[in-house]
Amino acid sequence: MRRSSLGFGLVFVIAACGTSGSSPAPAPQPSSSTPLPQLDAAVPTAPQPADWLKDVSLAELPDENPDPNIVEVTLEAKTAMVSIGSMRVEMWTYNGTVPGPILRAKKGNTLRVHVKNALPAATLVHWHGVRVPNGMDGTEMVQTPIAPGGRFDYEFVVPDEGTYWYHSHFQSSTQVGYGLYGALVVEPESSPPLPEEATLVLSDVSIDDVTQKLKPGDENGGFGDLFGREGNHVLVNGRERPRLGARVGLAQRWRFINAARAKFFQLDFGSHSVFRIGTDGGRIEQPVSTKGLLLVPGERAELYVIPRGVPGTTVPLMTKSYDRFHVAPDGVPTPLFEVALSVDPPSPEIAPPVRLATVRGLTTTGVTERRIEFSQVLVNGETRFGINGKNGADVPAVTVPAGTVELWTVYNTTKQDHPFHMHGFFFQVVSINSKPVTAHEWKDNVNLRPDDSYTLAVDFDARPGMWMYHCHILDHVDSGMMGMLHVH
Ligand code: C2O
Ligand code: CU
Description:
With 488 residues, the chain is mainly beta.
């Protein structure tokens, strides 16, 4: 009885959410005409197939601190030999793996990370999306890079649940391209019942397949910066085309992170029934049924997935071609990983909970409005990227009073896509090309197509300091598409 009424609620939710969302994903549509029953504490769910995560496992770290509210770990940045397909390649790693170990904490925990630098170069660790105190942001604005042989202790509270990641923020296009990134998952204090999860870090790497060595991070100089370097090996949790176990009909959750320096992933969910349930800054209010998802560098998504197909078969999860106007559209659709369906008989399909979270909407009446333009600029006759017609260090800092909300309209007057990322603060997309967006979602990364304009309500909660905002195609940072943000 209760379930069928919730089921109708779901259909309403899907219809009502049809135009929401900040990524230009295909229009959501109901996955079937009969409403699915809801997942409910009373509904027993079968376990996932044995070893379903074996091929996509991420290294885990022991918590060095007995206090249940403190997660204390050590990350050593070092070069290490890593398997890529049949090759052994020396990459830049955290603790010897690419991606680095997955860090897990609960909302409100203190995360203490001892970083040791055993790399041949200086480095910094940035906690992408986490509302850290300014001094912990891991940029050159707030600390001197950690020299080879040096160390730095990062410590902060993780105030929001969600899917985050950590990555090098020193010579980031090269260092991220070489492998310096990892997942950070912050679990909520309470949640409606949800199925088991897989964290999937998407990335790519450029390897000279003959010498089996990393290609130089600055290959092709300013031209490479301008177009954004993509690797010749696409990785899911550091592996090429790994398998993910699943049982037909039995829901599971996927947390995606795009950790590539420049590559966009246009995920195609094929016949699986998929609902978007979380974004950069945690859960969204209601699930949104979706057939695909564009995930740009830096962006995250949490999905509720009901696998479909024939038991005992393997279904590739594809990334489709996407044209971000770099050199040529990305080639043909490519399999990212294989969904290996167990031989178990199909499990009954259960839809996600109707309500996932409450997201407070920001009030923007009478607030300061700013215009930020992603622009193409000429520097000594050479085409480069910039902000408001200025390049890199010449972009004047934006000064914002701490504890305020502002409306930023970000324009893209260039001929390429650019993912806008802000450090330290979440925003909500208020309108896209003047069309209002009504659903509230916490974002820190949003993609702009050429000529797009996005109006963002930014929540400058009171954490003063020097922050930055930039395009998250990290090569474009090298080209000067970044600005400083002084919150005081
Ligand atoms: Cu994900 Cu400035 O970085
Ligand atoms: Cu860009």
